[in-house]
Amino acid sequence: MQSQNISDIIEKYLKSILADAEHVEIRRSEIADLFNVVPSQINYVIKTRFTIQNGYLVESKRGGGGYIRIEKVNLLDDADVLDTLIQVIGDSITQRDAYAVVQSLYEDEVLNRREAQLILVATDRNTLGVDDHDLENSLRARIIIGILNHLRYES
Amino acid sequence: MQSQNISDIIEKYLKSILADAEHVEIRRSEIADLFNVVPSQINYVIKTRFTIQNGYLVESKRGGGGYIRIEKVNLLDDADVLDTLIQVIGDSITQRDAYAVVQSLYEDEVLNRREAQLILVATDRNTLGVDDHDLENSLRARIIIGILNHLRYES
DNA sequence: ATAATGAAAGTCAATATTAGTCAAAGATAA
DNA sequence: TTATCTTTGACTAATATTGACTTTCATTAT
């Protein structure tokens, strides 16, 4: 019923491998062949679904023996998660990236489910309801960063 | 009582599916074709008949493989209290009044301390950081109302 | 060594495929 | 009649797909 588009299916495939392994290493053209899409669609999937906001690191190499390697990283392992995230957010963030950030915080148990939902609602496009996109994205960044900064001062 | 208009019929159709399933996931154009109406009429039906006040959550995605998904949720007992608050807030609220609203929700145990703090941070004048006071107050109203609407149901 | 070749992956913009918005026109009810 | 609800469609926005062109790297030939 769901995931009718190929990108979602490829995403699930890669994540199913990552569920059992530390990382995935693919040959772009092989995955493209496997799902009958053009190679550059793999880049699209990675760019939209395996960002650092989502908690993934991607590295690759071109030329003979080239590869794309995707690794799931745990933000809590970093010296300071919140600082890292705040840097990544900067002064503007899209709803999609915000979702990824909040999801990562939930997975790392910085936020519980209810808190994560609250933040997503507060920063939802429709909630903010401003027509200027730049303003919307900067408000979202301010709200999330405000909350992240608050989290570091409470027990 | 006869309710012979198409919007009512589409409403009944969707609700009959929801009687047996947790949620419905449709392709807008398919339903529009099925009932011989323009696609945007589906939006009209959803907007007028599947509101959160009636206990429905709606989410959608555009682009290839896009969909509209309607989910029936359980409304909580607090729902009418929330209605009252939403009315009181209207389309603008000062930081001081917002504090009072959040405080009372905390006292009524609708929110715990951490959640209350989150909301106050998200709607704080410095967090929002807009110069225009009217805009600030209306953003604050939208955020709090968005959250109150979210608190209506069990997720 | 250096140059040429081929085998990868990357970029980007055009196109395709959905859903959303809004306001005008039409229909119905009060 | 008038107010509200419904229907329609033109326009907008978001997301996905595709392919031509570019860049990088390893290997082979000179």
Automatic annotation (TrEMBL), chains A, B:
The CtsR C-terminal dimerization domain covers 77-149
GO process terms (BP): regulation of DNA-templated transcription
The residues the entry assigns to the signal sequence are none
Under Gene Ontology molecular function, one entry of this record is: DNA binding
Positions of the CtsR N-terminal HTH domain: 5-74
* UniProt KW keywords: DNA-binding, Repressor, Transcription, Transcription regulation
Q: Does the keyword Signal apply?
A: no
Taxonomically, the superkingdom here is Bacteria
* Gene3D superfamilies in the record: Transcriptional regulator CtsR, C-terminal domain, Transcriptional regulator CtsR, winged HTH domain
- This protein is called Transcriptional regulator CtsR
Per the UniProt record, the source organism is: Lactiplantibacillus fabifermentans T30PCM01
